[in-house]
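User: I'm designing a mutation panel for ABC-type Fe3+/spermidine/putrescine transport system ATPase subunit and want to avoid disrupting the core. Could you give me a predicted structure to guide residue selection? Please restate the sequence first so the numbering is unambiguous.

Assistant: Good idea. Sequence first, for numbering, then the predicted structure tokens:
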Amino acid sequence: MTSKSIVALEGVAKTYGAFTALHPTDLAIAEGEFVTLLGPSGCGKTTTLRLIGGFEQASAGRISISGQDVTERAPYHRPVNTVFQDYALFPNMSVSDNIGYGLSVKSNNVPKAERAKRVGEAVTLVGLEGMAHRRPGELSGGQRQRVAMARAIVRRPRVLLLDEPLSALDVKLREGMQVELKRLHRELGITFLMVTHDQTEALALSDRIVVMNQGRISQIGSPIELYDNPANPYVADFIGGANLVPAELIGRDGDTAAFRIGNGMVVRSRRATAMREPGRRITLGIRPERFVAATSGATNSLECVIRESLFHGDRLRLELGLDGITMPLFAELPRTAVSSPSGVEPGSHITLLVDPDDVMVFNAKEDQE
């Protein structure tokens, strides 16, 4: 991967009448990166992908690919190709004909021998050897997804656009295809730009993630950066599902700040270096997996009531009630952290400890960003 940008958006926006799907946006993607646009439905991620691909016309701004302004160019005049959510295969064509179709159309007109060579290489790359003469109806969902991938890469695009490419697969197939996507990206060396609403998928595959909300970019960073240091509560919640708890600053003791939550419980954090004014309203973020079962009265602990317990193999996911707070909290603990099944019955009490280094602190005004 190099620092040279292969895709650049400068002030790109998209409106539909009075509705703004994408506010003016700047984004640079380095050559060879795997970048994911992440967010819920309606956040602007698919609109951004379609603008880069040329399937939508920008209302404002400039889009460049490989240093060339492509803002007004049609999709087939851009060095990109797209893998769609629904595969979009021709049911009456064989695997090899589906893969090579884009090479056979008049605008490309790749010679027959070269076309056969590229199709054969693509079939091998995606692991479909021996299936070239089958039709899509004779393939599994995962195999059809591989055909769609091969068809996209056979034209050797500079940028591969992936629009929710794994969402139609079941869990096991999706996990397998995640490994395949990672391998293909490494072996092809081209830029991947993917859209997904699945934060687990984004964390597993991406070099960088662009978290979007209501037509704007909330934060850009590596998976580790976004998980460890989310810029606001929205990112903390969307990536990793952090508990977000309203709190009030009580005071400081050196590098540690103390906050009051609920009906008088105190939580300390070493991540509030700039906060000095007692009484300041803030939002604390605590990831469910950062809690540790503790004895009652332990420093920096919360006394909780268990509302529900979900069995996840070697771990338990607990929904908790906290005195004075209406919203539920969630904790994920090793199954061995509780002494017996009766210890996690609804209505039972549990004490949870959290390290001050793991308590994130956000300004209250950031809640909706």
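For picking mutation sites, this is relevant: The first strand starts at residue 5 and ends at 16. The CA atoms of residues 151 and 250 lie 60 Å apart.
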